Amino acid sequence: MDSEAKFSQKANSSFTMDDFAKALEIHDYQFQKGQVVHGRVFQLDSDGAYVDIGGKSSAFIPRDEASLRAVTNLSEVLPLNESLEFLIIRDQDAEGQVTLSRRQLEIKQIWERLAQMQENSQTIQVRVINLNKGGVTVDVQGLRGFIPRSHLVERDNLEALKGQSLTAGFLEVNRTNNKLILSQRIATQSASFSMLEIGQLVSGKVTGIKPFGVFVDLDGTSALLHIKQVSQKFIDNLEKVFQVSQPIKAVIIDLDQGKGRVALSTRVLENFPGEILENMDEVMASAQARAERARNKLLE
Question: Which family does it belong to (predicted)?
Fold first, then answer.
């Protein structure tokens, strides 16, 4: 390569770098919309605050982006010279200034936290803020959620729920569609499930009788006493044995929290085939001692 070509290449290279440096004076390309940055508020005014995020120009956070909650005093949520996290919500303008938000950062973090809670099958406290035919709208850490009527414990008097705090589980957490749907029934079942174990004697009430078995309510959790688990003797019609609202004691023989299933047995309480059919009162009265014997067999 001759000296003239080397000079030309060097000149071009120098020009490119200078040009790039000048561009950086106008724009800080490392700052982009959607990015979380650290910064310090150095000036407050009536419209918002100016923040040093380490760029060529200061950043700006509008007053209505300062917090998820209502703000009366900016200095309470944006203290001067304190290191805070911000979300960039608008790219640089002609002066190289980006627009920030604490409110949208909080919203982003809440959605992430709720998604994690759903994954871990956790429950959350929510407050009922409004109601309609389909259910109730609730405040979920500042976000608006919905509990369908079918997923409420109290479905007949929604008006009484307004302003109430409820424990709920998650049906859908979808930030993209802004969908936050919860269930009070899931939370009730979850709390009940944590108290249950295989081999345990439980008390409940018959809520339904089907050809294949009997549904039993255990303090909000629905359990099934299958026809084959009622007695060691063949049964042709469960309605001859049970009545709706009848109190019953039975032993848990299977649990599946993921599917919300609890399987019961009175068969294991019998001293001989058909005892539950001939003398249910006696079996129920001595159920505790019988259950201890059955538990030992179940856990062998």
Answer: Belongs to the bacterial ribosomal protein bS1 family.
